[in-house]
């Protein structure tokens, strides 16, 4: 039941947002460069779309801030940097990977890769999403950066063949790169109206809190893995 609402939950990126994508990329790059030096502790970069960007929420309620606070409450003095841009596909995420890493001004201890939802919502071929994610993971692997793959699931409305091919992307790439996998980023939130913003599309602060709580053990485990 929850999976049937993924498309509705993540939709709303539209042509207008795609037109301003370059402006958002520029602004995010400026923020990265201007960000203060990280505190002692691991540096985590969340590379993703609106789900990591905190779409529709005050910064304090967004994914990266809530994850940072949860980690610190758990005794991990991490800094979590926001690399999410609303509407990004895997292709767009791949295109900004290198300058995003440069903008951090330090090698991250972990990159959370949360991309693919917009490819699915637009009905783009799963093999394209897989190829783009493969290139992202290959580059991070080459740099000996630990990765946590935050997976997505296709809407059943797209048909069984599409669902089967899309859903297979994340476990296959996790196995290929020996990366930790969190199978479904929206686990526990998709399909629950009380956890969605008034726009009916995006997780609200409580929804993000649930996402962070469920994802937290995987983040801690990924940080504990020695780099290659």
Report what the structure shows.
The chain is of the alpha/beta class. It has a single domain (2-224), classed as SGNH hydrolase (Rossmann fold). Helix content is 50%, strand content 11%. It has 12 helices and 5 strands. The protein has a 5-stranded parallel beta sheet, with helices on both faces. Helix 3 (21-34) packs parallel to helix 7 (97-104), helix 5 (63-73) packs across helix 12 (205-224) and helix 9 runs parallel beside helix 11. The longest helix is centred in the last third of the chain and has 20 residues, at 205-224. The radius of gyration is 16 Å and the shape is globular. The model is unreliable at 1-16, 22-27 and 29-38 (pLDDT under 50).
Summary?
With 228 residues, the protein is an alpha/beta fold. 50% of the residues lie in helices and 11% in strands. The protein has a five-stranded parallel sheet with strand order 2-1-3-4-5, with helices on both faces.
Task: Annotate the secondary structure layout.
Elements: H1 6-10, H2 14-19, H3 21-34, E1 43-48, H4 50-53, H5 63-73, E2 79-84, H6 90-95, H7 97-104, E3 110-114, H8 117-121, H9 126-142, E4 147-150, H10 160-167, H11 169-177, E5 180-182, H12 205-224
Parallel strand pairs: 1-2, 1-3, 3-4, 4-5
Main β-sheet, spatial strand arrangement:
2-1-3-4-5
Helices, by number, come to 12
The first-level CATH class is given as: Alpha Beta
Computed Rg: 16 Å
Q: Give the DSSP E fraction (strand runs of 2 or more residues).
A: 5-15%
CATH architecture tag = 3-Layer(aba) Sandwich
Q: By helix and strand content, what is the structural category?
A: alpha/beta
In which range does the helix fraction lie?
40-55%
Q: What is the multimeric organization of the chains shown?
A: single chain
Spell out the helices and strands N to C: HHHEHHEHHEHHEHHEH
Largest sheet: 5 strands, parallel
The separation of the N and C termini measures: 39 Å
The number of domains: 1
- Give the beta-strand count: 5
Low-confidence stretches: 1-16, 22-27, 29-38
What is the CATH topology classification name?
A: Rossmann fold
Query: What is the mean predicted local confidence, pLDDT?
Result: 87
Shape: globular
């Amino acid at each position: 039941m929850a999976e049937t609402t993924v498309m509705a939950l993540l939709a709303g990126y539209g042509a207008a947002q795609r037109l301003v994508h370059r402006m958002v990329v520029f602004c995010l790059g400026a923020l990265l460069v201007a960000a203060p030096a990280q505190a002692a502790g691991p540096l985590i970069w969340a590379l993703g779309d609106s789900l990591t960007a905190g779409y529709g929420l005050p910064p304090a309620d967004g994914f990266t801030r809530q994850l940072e606070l949860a980690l610190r409450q758990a005794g991990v003095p991490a800094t979590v940097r926001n690399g999410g841009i609303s509407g990004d596909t895997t292709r767009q995420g791949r295109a900004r990977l290198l300058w995003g890493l440069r903008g951090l001004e330090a090698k991250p201890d972990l990159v959370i890769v949360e991309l693919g939802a917009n490819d699915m919502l637009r009905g783009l071929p799963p093999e394209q999403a897989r190829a783009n994610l493969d290139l992202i993971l290959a580059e991070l692997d080459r740099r000996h950066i630990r990765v946590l793959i935050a997976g997505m699931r296709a809407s059943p409305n797209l048909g069984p063949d599409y669902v089967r091919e899309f859903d297979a992307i994340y476990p296959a790439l996790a196995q290929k790169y020996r990366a930790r996998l969190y199978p479904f980023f929206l686990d526990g939130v998709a399909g629950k109206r009380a956890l969605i913003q008034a726009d009916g599309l995006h997780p609200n602060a409580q929804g993000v809190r649930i996402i962070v709580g469920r994802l937290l053990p995987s983040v801690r485990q990924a940080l504990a893995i020695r780099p290659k």
